[in-house]
Amino acid sequence: MNTFFLCISLGLCFLMFVSFYRCLMGPTILDRLIGVNAIGSKTVVLLLLIGFLYERVDMFVDIALAYGFLNFVAVIAASRYFHKRKGLYEGSFKGETKEVS
């Protein structure tokens, strides 16, 4: 069973690198925020898998919940900041706004 959790963890790390690429090369701020949020969500799952590997799930659940809450608050705060600055969308400079559907 440990081999299964280890293989899943390695696959999740690969997916985190794909999201990290989106954070670095995203064309808009919104793409970068979504990439950061995806990395945070995958980190929560990775923490739980580490808890299963070390057979200390109770401790790692607390850490994963705290990290997930901090990730959620940070992404919401950043998105509100960029929304107030009108910098979330590509064409949103000089007073122009773009509608999102």
UniProtKB/TrEMBL annotation:
It comes from the Bacteria. The chain crosses the membrane at residues 6-24, 36-54, 60-82. It is found in: Cell membrane. The keyword Metal-binding does not apply. InterPro entries: MrpF/PhaF-like. GO terms for molecular function: sodium:proton antiporter activity. Pfam families: MrpF_PhaF (PF04066). It is a multi-pass membrane protein. One of its GO terms (cellular component) is plasma membrane. Keywords: Cell membrane, Membrane, Transmembrane, Transmembrane helix, Transport. Belongs to the CPA3 antiporters (TC 2.A.63) subunit F family. This is pH regulation protein F. It comes from Desulfobacter latus.
